[in-house]
Design brief:
- It contains 2 helices and 8 strands, in the order E-E-E-E-E-H-E-E-H-E.
- By secondary structure, it is α/β, with parallel strands linked by helices.
- The protein has a domain of about 60 residues.
- It has a 4-stranded mixed sheet. Strands 1-2 form a two-stranded antiparallel sheet. A two-stranded parallel sheet has the order 5-7.
């Protein structure tokens, strides 16, 4: 199963027919950091794209969420498969 196992659909376009992108909250030499402040997080197109871009640049993805955030089982499995670090804050 690839990073983009779901087929592309025109509804995934943004604006005037341009594909959606990814802007990391932080970048280091070895990782892209994506910070999410939400009560639930699922495996989204943004996370799949961030994972792809991180792997393409020989980095890993660090996903930082609140301690109370519920993480979907699909995202947990994807994180294990592709080496994503999901970090839940202590506060």
């Amino acid at each position: 199963m690839g990073l983009f196992a779901r087929p592309f659909h025109p509804s995934q376009e943004h604006g005037r027919g341009k594909p959606r992108g990814f802007l990391p909250d932080g970048v280091s030499q070895d990782a892209f950091v994506l910070v999410k402040a939400c009560s639930r997080i699922r495996l989204t197109y943004e996370i799949r794209l961030a994972t792809f871009l991180a792997r393409e640049s020989s980095r890993r993805l660090r996903l930082m969420v609140q301690a109370s955030t519920a993480i979907s089982t699909e995202l947990r499995a994807f994180a294990i498969q592709y080496g994503i670090s999901i970090e839940q804050s202590k506060t």
